[in-house]
Amino acid sequence: RLHLVTWNVGTASPPPDVTSLLQLNSLDPTMDMYVIGLQEVNSRITNFLSDLAFDDPWSIFFMTVLSPLGYIKLSSVRMQGLLLLVFVKHVHLPFIRDIHTHYTRTGLYGYWGNKGGVTVRMSLYGHTICFMNCHLPAHIENTEQRLDDFEKILEMQFEGENIPSTLDHDVLFWFGDLNFRIADYGIHFVRESINNKRYNLLWEKDQLNMAKKKEAFLQEFIEGPLQFKPTYKFDLYSDVYDTSEKKRKPAWTDRILWRVKNLCQHASKEDEFSAEEQTISVTLNNYISHMSYGISDHKPVTGTFGLELKPLLSDPLVMLNPEGEWSAEHDVLISYSAVPEFPSSAWDWIGLFKVAFRHVNDYVTYAWVEDDEISSNKDRKQVYMSAAEIPDMGGEFLLCYYSNNFQSIVGISQPFQIQPNRTLMEKDLTQEENSWMQKPDNLESHDEF
Hints:
By secondary structure, the chain is an alpha+beta fold. The chain has helices at residues 45-53, 57-66, 143-154, 187-195, 200-203, 207-214, 261-268, 422-437; strands at residues 2-8, 33-39, 71-79, 82-89, 96-105, 116-124, 127-135, 171-177, 222-223, 254-260, 280-289, 301-309, 318-323, 326-327, 332-338, 349-354, 365-368, 373-376, 381-385, 395-403, 408-412, 416-419. The radius of gyration is 26 Å and the shape is elongated.
């Protein structure tokens, strides 16, 4: 299950609560992956430069919400106000490989990234998936410019060997503030149709729907029915459409579409194909807007999808586990085994992580698999970690094997306990007893308080 968010946040700070946005209290099974595409994240130049060194407030915010629930930030890419975040459940990490990011500037002749697209691609259980968050040019008259910019974004190439182009991925998700408007109809007719919940009267004049009928490259993209109010433009902290002098006509600017490659190929062939041939299918479970969020003049839109994959990978490349009891009182051992064809590197490392870790660099400590190796045979290898590196307080942790060649985690252990350091605890107790013994005994007056 995949939950995808698009939201033009209008330079605002994160809201106090995103439970409904992320459907965290839903009775359905939990999500396996969250993909969050934001536009107009505060991108004042000073902000932008400081964010290059550290995560921006929105990334930190979503990590704080999702990491205690067992999600890790798998990847992120930012260009000016465009931000794309991918979170995934720990269990899937060993089966996600070849993660690459890219950004394409289209604003101001391509020199300044106020418009354009940011993209994350990966191989998920052997299937190629691409996520593309776009912010296209505004204003009703710029439909052609929007289409030209999107074509330019689609043509971009990822750096690296054997990475397919965007349209050659098995599944491509396209979403963002696409800025398409409702043509021809006047503001009164549009608002009246919305008030009467007769959204279908507006669909045929929606510029994206019109373009999909004409433009060949758009015809393979699928979108769910627009059964929610247009998501732009609202007065802040309200569900009232624009009351400013400009009185913008409402529009479905914020959209989520997808394209399944094998459907396109099979559709272009005359013969019918059996469902068995289809190794991946995408089902839209819901496509809604969230009216309760008022920090921006856009309302967020989410799509919840079922991805059915025939796994082309079933075993992790590396299996690893802690040996014996772990505590900071002694050096500890990790044993691991890799599949025969695994391309290991001297730069591979094994990290010790708290169970609710946020991202791959959020380790407590790590060991180099070659430098810290103490034994090796064809089946298993052992690596040690020094006692000095192990947390004294103990707690629940897990181990992850990071592959330099794959630039991702390729093995993850079951969670395990590290015992608190008894020597340290005894020392603390002794110190406490001593300080208690040394206290003066003229404390009779304390009962006045």
